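pinned: reference chain
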Amino acid sequence: MTNKDACDTVGIFRGLTEAEIDEFSPDLQRVKYVKGAQIISEHDTADNLYFICKGKVKISKGLKNLETPSADLTTLEPGEFFGEMGIINDEARSATVVATEDVELLLIPKDLFLRISFKHPEVMFNLMQTLSGRLRDTNERFASLMDEMISKNRLMAIGMAASKIIHDLKTPLTVIVLTAQLIENLFPGSSEFSQSIVKQTRLIDQLVREIL
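pinned: its structure tokens
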């Protein structure tokens, strides 16, 4: 599978022509990891976005002061991506990613991804759609976790739920930031207002993490 073929399977590039994909696909880096390899570590610097060409990865979040050291958040498969939140928000990685089987990935450096996004706003729009879908999944997981806490009545369950919520709340906040940046790109005169939205959204993100 060529880089271009791999891009065709990634939803956020939906709507781009073959010529437009040809502009950046040669610049993408192809990397491989064996089963069990740690691809991203929580708190690492966020400098790349990853697309899964082959294999599966597990996303997990570290827990504090609990017997269980981490909580599994989700599993991603070919055609999906990860690493987008840190790139958009300029923050450290919020979770750890491990290969659950041999995987092949396409790596997009942060600066290249941002150039693609601002040149082709539909990429940002597609990304927001994907994140919105993940938010719906988060709502379902949250309801399930609440049932688990009620039935087990255990502090550990509460701590695991809080950790998952912290990570998943970044999704809607990231959508807001993406929307503001997309508006600024389409309407340059709105820069002052767009930057204000981004600033306040990051403040909310910080407050949520402190509360939880």
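why pinned: The helical segments are 3-8, 18-24, 84-89, 110-119, 121-152, 155-186, 191-211. The CA atoms of residues 113 and 152 lie 44 Å apart.
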